[in-house]
Amino acid sequence: MNYKLIALDVDGTLLHDNHELSEENKDSIKAAVSLGAELVLCTGRGPVSTMPIMEKMGLSGYVITHNGAVTVDLKTQKVIDQFPMDAEGLQPYVDYCREHGIHFDVNTAFGLYIDKADQMTPKMRSMYDEVFLEPMNLPHWSELKEPVVKFSAFGDLETMNELEKEWNTWNSPFYMVRSGDFFLDLMHKDASKGEALRRLAASKGIARENVLAMGNYYNDITMLTFAGKGIAMDNSPVDVKAAADEVTLSNNEDGVHHALEKFVVGVK
């Protein structure tokens, strides 16, 4: 199969657990691109912490960010597609997090807002620094100059499991998805990695059978099932593996490299 669009999740897929990009993955991606494929990173991260990875690989094109809520053209650094949320509809979730001491952040395409940004703990500061983000103080909804596209709650595994169970009982107008063991995200009801990838492929005239996608977590399932070839990493939960067509090696074993060699680069 001639894959024209390759969609890669970032954390737990493209990068090792230490957040490093291996030379093996980088070289295989460049080889795939040289054969005519276009790479798009499809991640729960925002554009600010995703674009440097593309630049590190010397690639242009697009990044699908915030779990599909925002697609950005790297050349212009402009939003070309997004799913704005009803920000005021998030107030009950904000209230719940504040009442229960659960950390949360509110994301616009390029902005990140939290409570008391000037009082972050060193641990919290380190978490945001790791992905090149500088949180700002969350203002009143009416003062935000850009649409809200994602709301994220953070906590230990037990806290997030309980939070997901609780919020699943609410009559929510939002799409809720786990983007990691310690993260629970809310977005517009139509936003997902799969839908954003479908819309990008359609805009470029690329059929779904010519799309290959790789991911490792629940927020990747929609793009794995949309793509003509959906590949789960070996470090994926069993439900994610079940949704995929193939399973490759883990992210720490350069599963991206091995899958690209098997299905793209090594195909004659």
TrEMBL record:
Keyword Hydrolase attributed: yes
Instruction: Report the superkingdom from the record.
Output: Bacteria
* Coiled coil stretches, renumbered: none
Q: Which SUPFAM superfamilies match?
A: HAD-like (SSF56784)
Query: What's in the keyword line of the UniProt record?
Result: Hydrolase
Enzyme Commission (EC) number: 3.1.3.-
A GO MF term: hydrolase activity
Instruction: Kindly give the Gene3D superfamilies that the UniProt entry links to this protein.
Output: 3.30.1240.10, HAD superfamily/HAD-like
State if Hydrolase is listed as a keyword: yes
**PANTHER family noted in UniProt:** HAD SUPERFAMILY HYDROLASE-LIKE, TYPE 3, PHOSPHOSERINE PHOSPHATASE
Q: What is this protein called?
A: Cof-type HAD-IIB family hydrolase
